[in-house]
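Annotators were shown the component list below and the corresponding predicted structure, then asked to write short factual statements about the assembly.
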Amino acid sequence: MTSVTETPGLAMSRINPGAIIRWTILFIGGVLMVTPLLYMFSTSLKTPGQIYDLRLIPAEPTLANYIEVLREGDFMRWFINSSIVAVVVTLSNLFFDSLVGYTLAKFKFRGRRFVFIAILSTLMIPTEMLVIPWYLMSAQFGWLDTYWGIMFPGMTTAFGTFLMKQFFETVPDDFLEAARIDGMNEFTIWWKIAMPLVTPALSALAIFTFLGNWTAFFWPLIVTTSKELYTLPIGLTSFAVEQAIRWEMIMTGAALATIPTLVIFLVLQRFIVRGVMLAGLKG
Amino acid sequence: MVHPTSSDTVPTHPIRPAPRLSMRTRSALWVWGFLAIPVLFYCVIRFYPTFNAFWLSLTDWDLMSEAEFIGFENYRRMFADPDFWQTFRNTFEYLVFGTPISLLIAFVVAYYLDRVRFAHNFLRALYFMPYITTAAAMAWVWRWFYQPPPTGLINSALGEMGFGQIEFLGSTSNALPAIMVTAIWAGLGFQIIIFMAGLRAIPDTYYEAARIDGLGEWTILRKITLPLLKPTTVFLVVFISIAFLRIFDQVYNMTTNDPGGPLGTTEPLVLMIYQTAFSSYDMGYAAAQTVVLFTILLVVSLLQLWILRDRA
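Structure shown to annotators:
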């Protein structure tokens, strides 16, 4: 045993000029990182005459821009569209990714390796390559400009399936065997016994899928053509283009698009950071 | 006396409704029952479109008339097209400058942030927050920052400090770096967290042993931390590279008045694909461009596997 290891407590109580300087530099860097967010909110609270004022705190903060944007734009509609799309896709991924991940992790069957490699290989295929066929398919089946059209490409993903498989592999077989002896059917075993044992992975998957779909841009841009079907990012872009140089309005729109994810982040910060670490290490 | 016993009416095994399925068969039925919908999904939504994209890349098709098979004509046209090569160069400029800059900043921040105890979560949140914002929304904020004076924040600040103005998005030489900064900024939070997770995964015993041996901080970093962090670093290099090769949201939103401009100097491959397919409706040519993108991404991913091969 070493007697003089630096424990965090000791390091903090000792006044160390180097540590203070490092902390200060890190703090300044962090403030720089959120500066675009701060100025976005600040400008959204300013009148058109004040936007050339560089001060961060508006002289006379006003919510007039928000009232105007919400009245003029279809932000509420886009907010609802984004919510529907993100929630449905997330639920679908939680169900199918974990069902397939569980099957691949816990059943021995002919073709298991083949199915696994086939699914994994789709990770190599970029979305950009698939959008043209998806677009043609959507045109043929009448999916263009519908919720289903926005959602169908992401209903299950190889990344999520792989993540869930990794976690189900840590579930002991004895648990499942015991349930089998009790006469439970396989679906109930998965749903009632295995799923509750992997909730950290499920919450990480849920957060990723939700945020990913909430901020998705490329495919929704292609598949939606009418304003009523835009998701929030696409709606914001069309709104910003219309507003041209009214930056206080554009900043208000950007703020409206950003607030939901920021709220989610502030509430679930711990889960999100842990989820990123989990997925980054396992995935 | 006749008793109607069970043995009179039914054969020796009273309950035998149907021939029993063996355990194996039943298990297989469950397995394929679970996999049926996902397997169908992968076939229809992933594999068929992949082959379809390859096929389309060999056709000439404007959606109006029938697709016409033209062999490798799209590829010949692409490789002879100076616009394609400009786009190709732009994409690699994002990649070649964006990846090392992101990696360096992310590592330095993670390295020091990992050891901060005071207000650790707060500092981490500051760095992470940009990552969970909507790229489209933040692209407009940065676009505003880059405006000429008196509108743009950066130029106004430079003006107050007595410096001359800088043309950002209107300049053929500055627009790409300006957009790249936005993309770097948006990705850092994720990379910092991943680096921190990698740093945590290094067992303390290595550091303790190094300290007993009297190694300095710089030596520990070079001889212990960086080598043990290699898997994390390789993962991030590939992850960031792929993100830059696929850059779109920022470029699209920051150049809506002249997509990929000025003079195509900011246009990445994905924007070219988008415009070829959904502005010109030149589906075959666009498909050929996606095949090129796919090939580049495949090479990058295989390089990762090759670099990490000895660890498997």
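Statements collected:
1. Strands of chain B lie at 59-60, 68-69.
2. Chain B touches chain A through 89 residues (CB under 8 Å).
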